[in-house]
């Protein structure tokens, strides 16, 4: 148990910088692995299978659901997205801390099935800053931005169900905090009961 | 609430290196404050009032108990030891993370009164190593060592009531872990409910 990896779910508003945050963590430390999701949507220009997503047909996806092959899955608009169980468990068994970047709905599914999962929500320091970041990108039309703000409003409703809130006002500091949360998860007493029992047994022999 | 310090109790076997660990933390980061205990024992050679302890008479100590001035207190052999509430709260209010190095009995008292307190137990990697560290000092006679081992045996019984276990096989790594545990305590969702509510309120105005 002691050397098993930690399963951490990272959610956060679009514009919270959670992608950059995870990238910073992966670059700085070697104990992390990202989970790659399955999706039924078509690859976009330049997307490689197995990098940002595993691209699968709806039939393959549905079969995988039947085989209980997903940690969580969800349908958005016309496409299905899911986190493959096998890959995540393999990484955890090898001692890697696995970061899942998924939506709230999936996050709560995972936590219910695996209560040791650490749920982390990333937010800009306030809603005005969030709005500024969303609008400030300048890459999308007002319609898209409005949709995103509406979704952020929707997501904010469940924020308090997460274990941790990270306020992303500086990527570097926030990445340190995220790493701290993962280190703390390793140090939880529940992960070390075997060691505690060993120490107690050895003590008796003094 | 967001900027208040974290109250952390550090306990551990004699020989676990918890003193060195806390020193390493204080040297590396500026967010920590150590609590200085009151004691009724006489100062030893070179001990200054207010540094390792505040030296007080039994009358002063008892009056402070009556005034509810201690976070926790206990009596060992012929002397009383206590953690002064005022100092700890002042530091927490100033945003300092306060480290209390106290025994298990006091640790559990503090946790009961202040459930947000983080209880951390420090241990060498195994009991053999613990024995080696205790005996290896070579500064005490066998009688003292045996007493200490017996007390370690006693203390090991309550280890699992702590929130975190830190295995001190490297001071540097272990100090990083301890710092991670404190950072995680800051990031707990319960500390950020005001921010969460503010974000929700601001969202509604978009």
Automatic annotation (TrEMBL), chains A, B:
PANTHER family in the record: GUANYLATE KINASE, GUANYLATE KINASE-RELATED
Species whose genome carries this gene: [Clostridium] aminophilum
Broad enzyme group: transferase
Lineage, highest ranks first: Bacteria, Bacillati, Bacillota, Clostridia, Lachnospirales
Catalytic activity: GMP + ATP = GDP + ADP
Keyword rRNA-binding carried by entry: no
Residues that coordinate or bind ATP: 12-19
InterPro entries (alphabetical): GK/Ca_channel_bsu, Guanylate_kin-like_dom, Guanylate_kinase, Guanylate_kinase_CS, P-loop_NTPase
Family indicated by similarity: Belongs to the guanylate kinase family.
Keyword entries, A-Z: ATP-binding, Cytoplasm, Kinase, Nucleotide-binding, Transferase
Entry keyword Glycosyltransferase: no
Role description: Essential for recycling GMP and indirectly, cGMP.
Boundaries of every Guanylate kinase-like domain copy: 5-183
Cell location: Cytoplasm
The protein's Enzyme Commission number: 2.7.4.8
One GO MF term attached to the UniProt entry: ATP binding
GO cellular component: cytosol
Record-given protein name: Guanylate kinase
């Amino acid at each position: 148990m002691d050397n098993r990896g930690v399963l951490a779910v990272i959610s956060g508003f679009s514009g919270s910088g959670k992608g950059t945050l995870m990238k910073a963590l992966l670059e700085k430390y070697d104990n992390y692995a990202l989970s790659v999701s399955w999706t039924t949507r078509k690859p976009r220009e330049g997307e490689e299978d197995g990098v940002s997503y595993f691209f699968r047909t709806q039939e393959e996806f549905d079969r995988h659901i039947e085989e209980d092959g997903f940690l969580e899955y969800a349908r958005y608009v016309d496409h299905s997205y899911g986190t493959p169980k096998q890959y995540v468990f393999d990484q955890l068994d090898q001692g890697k801390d696995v970061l899942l970047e998924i939506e709230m709905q999936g996050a709560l599914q995972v936590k219910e099935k695996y209560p040791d999962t650490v749920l982390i929500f990333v937010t800009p320091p306030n809603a005005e800053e969030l709005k500024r970041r969303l609008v400030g990108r300048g890459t999308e039309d007002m319609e898209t931005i409005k949709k995103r703000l509406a979704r952020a409003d929707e997501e904010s409703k469940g924020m308090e169900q997460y274990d941790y809130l990270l306020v992303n006002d500086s990527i570097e500091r926030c990445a340190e905090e995220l790493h701290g949360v993962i280190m703390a998860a390793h140090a939880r007493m529940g992960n070390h009961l075997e060691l505690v029992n060993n120490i107690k047994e050895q003590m008796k022999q003094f």
